[in-house]
Structures are given as C-alpha cells and as structure tokens.
Amino acid sequence: MSATQYQDKTLTNQELSKLLDMVEVTVTCYLAEKPLPKVRLDDYPKAIAEKGACFVSLHVDGQLQGCIGTTVPKVPLVLEVMRKAWASCCQDKRFLPFKNRR
Q1: 55 in helix, strand or coil?
Q2: Least packed by Cβ within 10 Å: which of 6, 23, 78, 102?
Q3: What local confidence, expressed as pLDDT, does residue 18 receive?
Q4: By the 8 A CB rule, do 49 and 41 touch?
Q5: How many C-beta atoms surround the C-beta of residue 67 within 10 A?
Q6: pTM to 2 decimals?
Q7: Could you give the 3-state DSSP secondary structure of residue 32?
Q8: Backbone torsion region of residue 80, taken as left when φ is above 0, otherwise alpha when ψ lies between -120 and 50, otherwise beta
Q9: Closest C-alpha among 77, 70, 69, 65 to residue 19
Q10: What pLDDT shows up at residue 98?
Q11: What are φ and ψ of residue 72, in 5° steps?
C-alpha cells in the first residue's frame, strides 16, 4: 500500500499493515469461495475504524490485475478496503476475474 495520507492524517505502519492484512484475507476468501470474516471495528485502530475512502490495486507478477476505489468516505475505512479488495478481484471490467485466470 503506497498511499499513507488519509484525509488530514498520516496512517502509521501498523495501521497500514492491518489494512494490507485485510486485503490479503479478502483475496484469500474470494479465491477459496469462503465467506468474508466478520469485522469488529473495536478490534482496529481508530484511524481505520472511522469513515474513509480508498482505492485497492491488485498486482500479479508486477502487472495491474484490478483496481477499484472511491473518493467519498461513507463507511469505516477497514470495511471499505475489504469491499474494494473484493471488487478488485472480480468487478474491474478491464481484467478477467481472479478465478478465471487459474
């Protein structure tokens, strides 16, 4: 995750790591056709449990394979990252869904 600016804040490495973990869990669930985990906002730092907007870009072998995002904060950032990671797997019309590339 390259962007560390979030509204007027800078996310810490720990917060960024938690968001990256969420992307990894989401992609793994998508590929395994398993349900996404339930997210308890109390388990996350305040900065990523607050409303936020994001873009999630997925790369395979250095090549872009999906990128979906929003600029308007409507839901907690950690949930938005989960949603956009899922969408990047299968809703970016420029690329085949991840499942179809195996």
Answers
A1: strand
A2: 102
A3: 97
A4: yes
A5: 16
A6: 0.88
A7: helix
A8: alpha
A9: 77
A10: 84
A11: -110, 115
